[in-house]
Write a structure and sequence with these properties.
Layout lengths: L3 E2 L29 E4 L4 H4 L4 E3 L1 E4 L2 E2 L14 E8 L5 E4 L5 E4 L4 E11 L4 E11 L23 E4 L4 H4 L4 E3 L1 E4 L2 E2 L14 E8 L5 E4 L5 E4 L4 E11 L4 E11 L4
Parallel strand pairs: 5-6, 14-15
Antiparallel strand pairs: 1-13, 2-4, 3-8, 6-7, 6-9, 7-17, 8-16, 9-10, 11-13, 12-17, 15-16, 15-18, 18-19
Protein backbone atom coordinates (compact mmCIF):
# COMPACT_ATOMS: atom_id res chain seq x y z
CA UNK A 1 0.00 0.00 0.00
CA UNK A 2 1.21 3.46 -0.80
CA UNK A 3 2.82 5.10 2.23
CA UNK A 4 1.23 8.13 3.78
CA UNK A 5 3.89 10.74 4.52
CA UNK A 6 3.20 13.64 6.80
CA UNK A 7 4.73 16.92 5.66
CA UNK A 8 5.01 20.34 7.23
CA UNK A 9 6.63 23.49 5.90
CA UNK A 10 7.99 25.65 8.71
CA UNK A 11 8.23 29.36 8.04
CA UNK A 12 9.91 29.93 11.41
CA UNK A 13 10.69 27.88 14.49
CA UNK A 14 7.48 26.36 15.80
CA UNK A 15 5.83 28.41 18.57
CA UNK A 16 8.24 31.25 17.77
CA UNK A 17 10.29 32.97 20.40
CA UNK A 18 9.31 32.36 23.99
CA UNK A 19 6.58 34.74 25.07
CA UNK A 20 5.28 35.64 21.61
CA UNK A 21 2.07 33.61 21.97
CA UNK A 22 0.92 35.72 24.89
CA UNK A 23 1.15 39.05 23.08
CA UNK A 24 -1.97 40.45 21.46
CA UNK A 25 -1.78 40.37 17.69
CA UNK A 26 -2.07 43.46 15.56
CA UNK A 27 -5.06 43.32 13.23
CA UNK A 28 -4.17 43.25 9.51
CA UNK A 29 -5.61 46.21 7.68
CA UNK A 30 -8.92 45.54 6.00
CA UNK A 31 -9.71 42.30 7.87
CA UNK A 32 -12.33 41.97 10.60
CA UNK A 33 -11.15 40.53 13.93
CA UNK A 34 -10.87 36.76 14.26
CA UNK A 35 -13.47 35.13 16.51
CA UNK A 36 -13.52 31.86 18.43
CA UNK A 37 -16.67 30.07 19.59
CA UNK A 38 -16.35 26.97 21.78
CA UNK A 39 -19.26 24.70 22.72
CA UNK A 40 -19.50 23.00 26.14
CA UNK A 41 -18.03 19.50 26.33
CA UNK A 42 -20.30 16.73 25.06
CA UNK A 43 -22.03 15.46 28.19
CA UNK A 44 -22.23 11.82 27.13
CA UNK A 45 -18.46 11.66 26.69
CA UNK A 46 -17.62 13.36 30.01
CA UNK A 47 -19.11 10.37 31.85
CA UNK A 48 -16.43 8.24 30.15
CA UNK A 49 -13.60 10.58 31.12
CA UNK A 50 -13.39 12.01 27.61
CA UNK A 51 -13.65 15.70 26.73
CA UNK A 52 -14.88 16.52 23.24
CA UNK A 53 -14.95 20.24 22.48
CA UNK A 54 -16.62 21.31 19.24
CA UNK A 55 -15.66 24.81 18.12
CA UNK A 56 -15.80 27.15 15.18
CA UNK A 57 -13.94 30.25 14.10
CA UNK A 58 -14.76 33.30 12.05
CA UNK A 59 -12.46 35.44 9.91
CA UNK A 60 -9.54 32.99 10.16
CA UNK A 61 -8.60 29.73 8.43
CA UNK A 62 -6.99 27.01 10.55
CA UNK A 63 -3.91 25.51 8.92
CA UNK A 64 -0.24 24.71 9.71
CA UNK A 65 1.43 27.73 8.08
CA UNK A 66 3.86 29.75 10.18
CA UNK A 67 6.05 32.83 10.13
CA UNK A 68 5.78 36.61 10.00
CA UNK A 69 5.57 36.56 6.21
CA UNK A 70 2.35 34.53 6.48
CA UNK A 71 0.68 37.46 8.28
CA UNK A 72 0.19 39.04 4.86
CA UNK A 73 -1.98 36.14 3.67
CA UNK A 74 -5.65 37.03 3.22
CA UNK A 75 -7.98 35.63 4.45
CA UNK A 76 -6.01 35.36 7.69
CA UNK A 77 -4.59 31.98 8.78
CA UNK A 78 -3.90 30.65 12.27
CA UNK A 79 -3.86 27.67 14.64
CA UNK A 80 -4.38 26.80 18.31
CA UNK A 81 -2.27 26.51 21.46
CA UNK A 82 -3.99 24.26 24.03
CA UNK A 83 -3.31 23.99 27.77
CA UNK A 84 -4.88 21.59 30.27
CA UNK A 85 -5.36 22.78 33.86
CA UNK A 86 -2.28 24.58 35.20
CA UNK A 87 0.34 22.91 33.03
CA UNK A 88 3.08 25.25 31.88
CA UNK A 89 3.34 23.60 28.43
CA UNK A 90 1.02 23.70 25.44
CA UNK A 91 0.30 21.48 22.46
CA UNK A 92 -0.52 22.64 18.96
CA UNK A 93 -3.80 21.98 17.17
CA UNK A 94 -3.69 22.67 13.43
CA UNK A 95 -7.11 21.68 12.12
CA UNK A 96 -10.76 22.59 12.52
CA UNK A 97 -11.49 19.15 14.00
CA UNK A 98 -12.92 18.83 17.51
CA UNK A 99 -10.51 19.00 20.43
CA UNK A 100 -10.40 15.61 22.19
CA UNK A 101 -8.76 14.81 25.54
CA UNK A 102 -9.21 11.39 27.16
CA UNK A 103 -8.50 9.43 30.35
CA UNK A 104 -8.81 12.48 32.59
CA UNK A 105 -9.09 11.70 36.30
CA UNK A 106 -12.36 12.55 38.08
CA UNK A 107 -12.70 16.10 39.33
CA UNK A 108 -12.71 19.68 37.99
CA UNK A 109 -10.57 20.58 34.99
CA UNK A 110 -10.11 23.39 32.52
CA UNK A 111 -8.74 23.75 29.01
CA UNK A 112 -7.41 27.05 27.71
CA UNK A 113 -7.83 27.41 23.95
CA UNK A 114 -5.74 30.14 22.35
CA UNK A 115 -6.42 31.05 18.74
CA UNK A 116 -3.14 32.45 17.42
CA UNK A 117 -1.98 33.81 14.09
CA UNK A 118 0.80 32.42 11.92
CA UNK A 119 3.35 34.23 14.10
CA UNK A 120 1.92 32.68 17.30
CA UNK A 121 0.34 35.92 18.56
CA UNK A 122 -2.99 35.59 20.34
CA UNK A 123 -6.09 36.55 18.35
CA UNK A 124 -8.74 35.21 20.75
CA UNK A 125 -8.97 32.74 23.61
CA UNK A 126 -11.49 30.86 25.70
CA UNK A 127 -11.20 28.84 28.92
CA UNK A 128 -13.57 25.88 29.18
CA UNK A 129 -14.22 24.55 32.69
CA UNK A 130 -15.83 21.18 33.34
CA UNK A 131 -15.91 18.28 35.78
CA UNK A 132 -15.22 14.61 35.13
CA UNK A 133 -17.63 12.51 37.23
CA UNK A 134 -16.37 9.63 39.30
CA UNK A 135 -16.92 6.40 37.43
CA UNK A 136 -18.11 3.08 38.84
CA UNK A 137 -15.81 0.08 39.02
CA UNK A 138 -18.01 -1.77 36.56
CA UNK A 139 -15.92 -3.31 33.82
CA UNK A 140 -16.56 -1.42 30.57
CA UNK A 141 -18.01 -3.17 27.58
CA UNK A 142 -15.43 -4.86 25.39
CA UNK A 143 -15.02 -2.88 22.18
CA UNK A 144 -15.23 -4.74 18.93
CA UNK A 145 -12.44 -4.47 16.43
CA UNK A 146 -8.83 -3.47 16.94
CA UNK A 147 -7.43 -6.46 15.05
CA UNK A 148 -5.79 -6.15 11.62
CA UNK A 149 -8.13 -6.87 8.75
CA UNK A 150 -7.33 -10.21 7.19
CA UNK A 151 -6.92 -8.70 3.71
CA UNK A 152 -4.71 -5.81 4.88
CA UNK A 153 -1.11 -5.87 6.15
CA UNK A 154 -0.47 -4.63 9.71
CA UNK A 155 -0.43 -0.88 10.27
CA UNK A 156 2.95 0.64 11.09
CA UNK A 157 4.03 3.85 12.84
CA UNK A 158 7.42 5.38 12.02
CA UNK A 159 8.50 8.30 14.22
CA UNK A 160 11.43 10.70 13.84
CA UNK A 161 13.45 12.25 16.64
CA UNK A 162 12.57 15.82 17.68
CA UNK A 163 14.42 18.64 15.91
CA UNK A 164 17.45 19.58 18.07
CA UNK A 165 17.31 23.29 17.20
CA UNK A 166 13.74 23.54 18.45
CA UNK A 167 14.50 21.66 21.66
CA UNK A 168 16.81 24.54 22.58
CA UNK A 169 13.77 26.79 22.93
CA UNK A 170 11.61 24.20 24.69
CA UNK A 171 9.71 22.95 21.64
CA UNK A 172 9.38 19.30 20.64
CA UNK A 173 8.43 18.90 16.99
CA UNK A 174 8.01 15.24 16.06
CA UNK A 175 7.33 14.19 12.50
CA UNK A 176 5.89 10.77 11.79
CA UNK A 177 4.44 8.68 9.02
CA UNK A 178 2.20 5.66 8.87
CA UNK A 179 2.05 2.64 6.63
CA UNK A 180 -1.08 0.66 5.78
CA UNK A 181 -3.29 3.16 7.60
CA UNK A 182 -4.73 6.58 6.76
CA UNK A 183 -4.91 9.24 9.49
CA UNK A 184 -8.48 10.55 9.45
CA UNK A 185 -11.08 11.88 11.96
CA UNK A 186 -13.38 8.88 11.61
CA UNK A 187 -14.43 7.13 14.81
CA UNK A 188 -16.60 4.26 16.01
CA UNK A 189 -17.07 0.53 15.29
CA UNK A 190 -18.69 1.18 11.91
CA UNK A 191 -15.51 2.87 10.67
CA UNK A 192 -13.58 -0.40 11.16
CA UNK A 193 -15.09 -1.60 7.88
CA UNK A 194 -13.44 1.21 5.90
CA UNK A 195 -10.67 0.13 3.54
CA UNK A 196 -7.92 1.24 3.41
CA UNK A 197 -7.88 1.22 7.23
CA UNK A 198 -8.29 4.56 9.05
CA UNK A 199 -7.01 5.64 12.46
CA UNK A 200 -5.59 8.44 14.58
CA UNK A 201 -3.04 9.14 17.31
CA UNK A 202 -3.18 9.17 21.10
CA UNK A 203 -0.41 11.41 22.47
CA UNK A 204 0.84 11.49 26.09
CA UNK A 205 3.57 13.71 27.56
CA UNK A 206 5.78 12.26 30.29
CA UNK A 207 3.73 10.28 32.83
CA UNK A 208 0.45 12.14 32.49
CA UNK A 209 -2.59 9.90 33.13
CA UNK A 210 -4.41 11.53 30.20
CA UNK A 211 -3.77 11.94 26.48
CA UNK A 212 -5.00 14.02 23.59
CA UNK A 213 -6.21 12.65 20.27
CA UNK A 214 -4.82 13.88 16.96
CA UNK A 215 -6.40 13.00 13.64
CA UNK A 216 -5.00 15.91 11.62
CA UNK A 217 -2.05 14.13 10.03
CA UNK A 218 0.24 16.98 11.08
CA UNK A 219 3.43 16.61 13.15
CA UNK A 220 3.14 16.48 16.93
CA UNK A 221 4.06 19.79 18.55
CA UNK A 222 4.57 20.54 22.23
CA UNK A 223 5.87 23.92 23.39
CA UNK A 224 7.09 25.71 26.52
CA UNK A 225 8.66 22.51 27.85
CA UNK A 226 10.76 22.86 30.99
CA UNK A 227 14.49 22.03 30.84
CA UNK A 228 15.28 18.39 31.55
CA UNK A 229 14.33 14.94 30.32
CA UNK A 230 10.95 14.24 28.75
CA UNK A 231 9.20 11.51 26.82
CA UNK A 232 6.22 11.46 24.49
CA UNK A 233 4.17 8.30 24.01
CA UNK A 234 2.63 8.17 20.54
CA UNK A 235 0.00 5.48 20.03
CA UNK A 236 -1.53 4.64 16.70
CA UNK A 237 -5.17 3.69 17.26
CA UNK A 238 -7.86 2.39 14.96
CA UNK A 239 -11.23 4.08 14.52
CA UNK A 240 -12.51 2.32 17.66
CA UNK A 241 -9.57 3.62 19.75
CA UNK A 242 -7.83 0.24 19.97
CA UNK A 243 -4.06 0.78 19.98
CA UNK A 244 -2.34 -1.12 17.16
CA UNK A 245 1.18 0.38 17.29
CA UNK A 246 3.14 2.63 19.62
CA UNK A 247 6.45 4.46 19.93
CA UNK A 248 8.05 6.33 22.85
CA UNK A 249 10.23 9.32 21.95
CA UNK A 250 12.71 10.35 24.64
CA UNK A 251 14.59 13.64 24.57
CA UNK A 252 16.11 16.34 26.74
CA UNK A 253 15.42 20.07 26.70
CA UNK A 254 18.70 21.86 27.47
CA UNK A 255 18.91 24.41 30.26
CA UNK A 256 18.82 28.02 29.15
CA UNK A 257 22.03 29.98 29.29
Amino acid sequence: MKQKIVRLVLGILLFGSIGSSTSQAQLPAGQPPAKLFVDPPLAGQLAKGVVVLPFRTENVRIMPVFGRAALAVSPRIGHFHLTLDDNSWVWGHFSDQEIIVADLPPGPHKIRIQLVNANHETLAQEVVKFEIPRRSNTKPEQKAGGKPRAEEPPAKLIVEAPQPDLLKIGVALIRYRTENLQIAPLFGPAALAISPRVGHLHVTLDDAPWHWADASGQPIDVGYLSPGRHKILIELADANHEVIAREVVRFEVPAKD
